[in-house]
């Protein structure tokens, strides 16, 4: 029986409690415990329900009156609701929850509040289905938006008003080299200290203070070492930041700008050098005639001789300028690069200072190129002279000749180096090296860091001009305090001087084979762009890739990697220690670890930079994606156990 209870108000006026409960919009039921002979609470018996409860339950009160809860609603057992009711009654701790009911005749979301009142469990509930559906729709929309944001290539960071990171998508973790657990909740200025006082901080604070969206490009130094294009949108919660790594784009723009600048200087230098060459020939000619007329006994003959010698040096400089501007007349023939390099190394052996060695690695078949032999020898002479000076009295200059294919992909990434097959002459030294700023200007005519030692700044620029005039290109790779490698790419020809078409790369990789795998690979390079490129190549082929910006970072990642690292790919020259030293450290814990060294230096020259001479896997930068993939797969397959 539902029954009725009559009570009195404070002024003595009677009121009907049941009528009051029936007037409520929320359902109210009362349950009394049912215990077995051992005193264990095994069920509840219905003893009250108000009108709203009857309406929500869609059944008349007679169905419930005096019935057991689990008889009328057996789904309360499997769903766990009965156990939660029992816990609320036994402990006196209120149960507050939103539950979904799916069994007829009751369906939808209900907010429940169950509490013990005397010897009864009173349950109050209200239908919140519409509200729950709206919340579910909002959650689904938010998850859908987050899924889209996770898939986009731009990085996304959300910061609150205290500059703490509240969200970071996968691209942000990748670009910033941070794991998912290392960003959330961190103050951005603590996590990225180089941003303090930089354009990043100025622009972000401006956006928050003014409510204006800001867009800018800015460079972040090592360990990220790249340019970012940033858009920051302020809102009531803080700041949402979209950014992209545009380091490769900025470097390409700088390279193209340098090519344009060199082309402009080249044109100007060619015109000036041509006119000055004519003037100097007149001066030299008349000086020679004057010397003949005066004779050696005349007191002015020494002055005339000094004029002639200075003029000869000036004529040599104008010839270098004409070479740089491609204004020099050349007579190309088919030349064996191997023979020319071997001959030059032999000639220079006896003319270099004590403590300096000039050596050549030329144990290859003939490599023919169509080039003016005189200009080729002049170019290589300039490069060797520069390398000897960089040694500052002690060290090795190494000359090498190899063959390289440049495909369309590599050509796009290296402006000025068209697709084709090239003979590559490399001149390496282990001298003082060049920093980024010097390297950027090294090919400019008259730029030199050795002015006090008589340097004119025309050696590299003339070599660059000779390479271009032969249809090739000159590239530089250098590290301060470590050394420099200059590569000259000259288009290959057959013995009749006909160009050789691009073919298979000069390693043992099948160009049609683009293998992948599932192993774990640790990539270590202090250049952010190189790290990003290698990571993308390997991830696209299924590998698990860990990325480190220095050797300490790499050692930390390797120590916690699960599964352990199968292959280490490391640059030879790193700011803190060499790649070989890193490999030695990691092999103490993982003796079977395989190592692939990569470097802008040549394979033979890295032997002097901390890499052992034997049993070394090496890949020279720049390399093609299929070259890297093939070499990685070959190394990993080689170390796989074989069946007996």
Q: Which strand order does the major sheet show?
A: 4-3-7-6-5
Give the averaged pLDDT, no decimals: 77
* Secondary structure tally, helices: 21
Write down the Rg. Answer: 40 Å
Q: How much β-strand is present in the residues?
A: 25-35%
Tell me the major beta sheet: 5 strands, antiparallel
End-to-end distance: 83 Å
Strand pairing plus helix content: what structural class?
A: alpha+beta
Silhouette: elongated
- Share of helix, binned: 25-40%
How many DSSP-defined strands?
24
Low-pLDDT sequence parts: 1-15, 324-330, 503-512
Description:
A hairpin with a 5-residue loop joins strand 1 (6-8) and strand 2. The strands form six sheets. Strands 4-3-7-6-5 form a five-stranded antiparallel beta sheet, with helices on both faces. Helix 11 (247-294) runs antiparallel to helix 12 (301-324) and helix 12 (301-324) packs across helix 17. It is of the alpha+beta class and 644 residues long. The model is unreliable at 1-15, 324-330 and 503-512 (pLDDT under 50). The longest helix has 48 residues, at 247-294. It starts with 5 loop residues before the first strand and ends in a 6-residue tail after the last helix.
